[in-house]
Amino acid sequence: MSALLSVEDLGIAFGTSDPVVSGVSFEVHKGQTLALVGESGSGKTISCRAILRILPKKARLSSGRVVLNGRDGRQELHHLTERRMRGIRGNAVSMIFQEPMRSLSPLHRVGNQVIEALVLHHRVSAATAKAAAIEQFERVGFPDPERAFRAYPFELSGGMRQRAMIAMAMISKPELLIADEPTTALDVTTQAQVLGLIKELQKETGTAVILVTHDLGVVANMAESVVVMNKGRVMEAGPASAVLRAPAHGYTQKLFAAAPQIPDVARAAPPLPREDLILTLSDVSKTYHVRGNSRWKPEMLVRACRGVDLAVTRGKTLAIVGESGSGKTTCARIALGAEPPDPGGKVAFRASADADPIKVHAMSRAARTAFQRQAQMVFQDPYSSLSPRMRVMDALTEPLEIHGIGTWSERREKAAEMLQWVGLKREMLFRYPHAFSGGQRQRLSIARALMLNPSLLVCDEPTSALDVSVQEQILTLLEDIRDRAGLSYLFISHDLAVVARIADEVAVMRQGLVVEQAPPETLFYNPQHPYTKALIAAQPEPDINKPIDLKLVANGAGAPESWPESFRFTPDIVPSLTEVEPGHKVRCHA
Predict the structure, then answer these.
(1) Is the dihedral of CA 219, 220, 223, 228 positive or negative?
(2) What is the pLDDT of residue 294?
(3) What is the DSSP string of 416-430?
(4) Quick check: helix, strand or coil at residue 281?
(5) Is the per-residue pLDDT at 296 higher than 70?
(6) Which residue, 102, 383, 384, 590, has most beta carbons within 10 Å?
(7) What's the pLDDT at 185?
(8) Maximum Cα–Cα distance for the chain, whole Å?
(9) Residue ranges per domain, the chain?
């Protein structure tokens, strides 16, 4: 049986330079999934773009050929005219791009973007196309397909935007789907559901899938065959079962070693001491007023967080875990004074063990300036958190200039010192952010946050968009800085495997409420809440014999009304957070 797609000896170069991709070959058969695995810069995405001939302007095929054996017969894609290639893109071969917010036009409604391929390739009426899109939206799990069709991309969460991208790619019933990191920045529960959705659609339509990923746990759950790439070359290839059970190449083994996993825990941990608290949130709630979907619909109230009580012990790490929209980042913004809580909520900060607590939301201008020196934030996206117009030295010294600290030469020396702290070289001070990889940019973001010598660092998903090996380096770096500088962390994540590595205590949030709180060992040894169990079950493991339990994930990640009676809550009736054992709290009806 001939392969649906054959890529033979593919080489890609920029201008007259040496090839950045060389000798890449693989085959994809109908109804099967091939995983392209490797770190950022390994050549995965550009190899897939070469299949559709959507390379950057200066890039060229230096060698090889791409053959599609589809419903229109055998076609050598690299020899087709541009007009014939337009008939293949989005029709016979579709692609889900990595960042849905950047791939969807912010000026057009989601539904109009989804039906575009259907109207262009199949010449159907707008009404027929809309009906097909609504049906596709239902299949990919939109709770209100009509509303999603009318929505703009910024009105949808990351998981919903990714589902819209899947609907757009599948609406023309392609023979081959190229999914470029389709779950990289998604919550683990949403990731599990998206992966299950792709498998379900694949089974129904017989579509072949090329899955671009750096996550070996995703590979174990999705792929029949694997191609491991590094620096534009194939390091290892073969059936997924063989590669995952016994990786032969050193690079593949390195990826396995770096993959975060939820540990097997033999017993619960003792509760965390509460003598010296650097930050406390007491009865913190936040309500937003959101416009209705149309002119005649009233304004809606969105309760981002409700009655949150959290405390960060000095020198320790408190992790807040949950899906998008659970209230994690809202709590962090309130903790830093960037958002006021609803009346009754209190945030207190103590700069040192013997200092009086400061009421964060009742500070004078001078007190706020002093507080901002003590509490800093590392943002989620290393690409947008640094100005592309500022050299690294200017970006790092800017906080010192704002606070009037030091002379020009002292600021420069401080910037050079912080670069060394985060594992970068002094000569990098004069480069611009675009000259750095994602992992290096995240290191720069950490260096900037450290410039004022803070005592509290709020880390908002600092590793969610990074490769597993780079993620490992950033976590090691954060641990080293915490121990060296005596920092305290409020660490926000959706990944329990990452949290298991760095946290001293974990608070699990769902729909604005803390549903379970305990040290990580206790949480993994004895999870009580159905949502916590879903987070643990949704973590993909690089073991082909341990597939994700989608049923368990769906139960815990579903509506609270579907949970066992003792854990259910409604907008009006919320059970209290009850201590079920020392240091372990669960939101349940006693």
Answers:
(1) positive
(2) 60
(3) HHHHHHTT--GGGGG
(4) strand
(5) no
(6) 383
(7) 62
(8) 77
(9) 1-92+177-259, 106-173, 277-376+451-526+559-587
Instruction: With CA atoms as reference, report the closest residue to 197 among 215, 209, 185.
Output: 209
- Cα distance from N-terminal residue to C-terminal residue, the chain: 61
Q: What gap in Å lies between CA 181 and CA 200, rounded to an integer? A: 18
| Dihedral sign computed on CA atoms, order 174, 176, 181, 183 | positive
Quote the pTM value: 0.83
Average pLDDT over residues 562-581: 88
Contact 230, 251 (CB under 8 A): yes
* Nearest of 443, 456, 521 to residue 482 by alpha carbon: 456
Amino acid at the residue 57 = K
CATH number, domain 277-376+451-526+559-587: 3.40.50.300
Residue 137 makes CB contacts below 8 A (sequence gap 6+) with 114, 145, 148, 149, 163, 164, 167
**Calpha distance 492→142 (Å, rounded):** 26
Residue whose pair of structure tokens reads 């009754």 in the numeric block: 344
Taken in order 568, 574, 578, 584, the sign of the CA dihedral is positive
Pairing of the two strands 505-510 and 317-321: parallel
CATH class of 1-92+177-259: alpha beta
Radius of gyration of the CA atoms of the chain, in A: 25
Tell me if domain 1-92+177-259 and domain 277-376+451-526+559-587 are identical in fold: yes
CB atoms within 10 A of CB 408: 10
Residue 297 has pLDDT above 70, yes or no: no
| CA 325/CA 528 separation, integer angstroms | 22
Inter-CA distances, 245 with 11, 239, 248, 251, 270, Å: 30, 10, 10, 15, 36
Q: Which two tokens stand for residue 157?
A: 């969460």
Question: pLDDT exceeding 90 applies to what percent of the chain?
Answer: 49
Return the pLDDT at 233: 95
DSSP state of 28: E
Pick from 47, 93, 54: which is nearest to 71 by CA?
Answer: 93
Residue 588 identity (one-letter amino acid) = C
Residue whose entry in the numeric block shows the structure tokens 């169990």? 533
Which is it for strands 277-290 and 346-349: parallel, antiparallel or unpaired? antiparallel
